[in-house]
Amino acid sequence: MPIADNALNEASRYFAIVGGAIGAALALLYCGLQFLFPDSMAIIIVLASGLILTGAFHEDGFADVWDGFGGGWSVSQKLTIMKDSRLGTYGATSLVLLLLAKYELLMLLADHWLWVSAALICAHTLSRAMATSIIGRLAYVQEDAQSKVKPVAKALSRQSLKVLYYSAGSLLLLMWLTQLFSFIECLLLVCVLWLTRFLCITWFKSQLRGYTGDCLGAAQQIAELVIYGFCVQVWL
Predict the structure, then answer these.
(1) Average pLDDT of 4-32?
(2) Which end of the chain is more exposed for a tag (fewer CB within 10 A), N or C?
């Protein structure tokens, strides 16, 4: 059943909150698994559970973007490849490297259960806030507008932006109050995510002259990885 654009536009304001709930669920799972398995196995199960919980929705977009951008020459060719349900060499390779990078970064934090838990919550929340904020900053690619497989919001109201940014800001405030991040580190993380957002927008614009739902999924995955890396640099 097709989802109305206005419903997607209204729902998009809550994507960061949904990400926080997913991150919290994975953090709780990790804490429980620590009593049963070594850190390495606990992190593998957490990553696998995240894929199951979200249906690998964002990872699918990440792989499609690499397949399309790597295998297509024209915008039309790239979009055709991105819509193809088959996984190509670029997509498969990118997914393997993505999951390996997530595993390695979380393993570096595994000496302290709180670090892994906080990183999971922070990454899943803020990465979705960053990716969602791209909506409306670029033109939605018209050739992809007929696709009903992966509907995506095409605009963000001022109220939606407020809810989105308040959600992200509340988490950063919590990280500061619990002394996991200093005030300067919170500001630095915002700058790092803003730079990541700028680079993603520039990349999508150069490749498609706009964005699609797959692009938002790729941006979320890139931002999640950046946040894990930031946590490693701050806490180690």
Answers:
(1) 88
(2) N
